[in-house]
Amino acid sequence: MNKGICPKCNSTEVYSSETLRYKAGTYSSNTIPLSLFRSIPLDNYVCVECGYTESYIADAEMMPRIRNTWKRVMPETEQTER
């Protein structure tokens, strides 16, 4: 989606909040939590044809902090019992 093509409908009518000056909204909306006092802003992409949206971390330098703070989601294997 951040390459300008919607993965749901293949439209090129994709718009981004990447250039918005203030990314955090009311009550820290448009962010994800890192700690009690720290949030990470997001860049949002919206397809105006189908409404599909995706969000990406606005500051790539925050990725290691997420890795060190959040719990990793391990992929399920086909052999895992359900």
Question: What does this entry look like structurally?
Answer:
By secondary structure, this protein is mainly beta. The chain has a domain at 14-69. It contains 1 helix and 4 strands. Strands 1, 2, 3 and 4 form a 4-stranded antiparallel beta sheet that branches. A hairpin with a 5-residue loop joins strand 2 and strand 3 (39-47).
What does this entry show, briefly?
This protein is mostly beta strands and 82 residues long. It contains one helix and four strands.
- Identify low-pLDDT runs: none
What is the residue-mean pLDDT, rounded to a whole number? 87
Helix content estimate: under 10%
Rg, Cα atoms, Å? 16 Å
Q: What is the chain-wise order of helices and strands?
A: EEEEH
Helical element count? 1
State the end-to-end CA separation: 33 Å
Note the beta-strand portion.
Answer: 15-25%
> What gross morphology would you assign?
flat
Structural class: mainly beta
Fill in the keyword field for this structure.
single chain; 82 residues; mainly beta; four-stranded antiparallel sheet; 1 helix; 4 strands; 24% strand
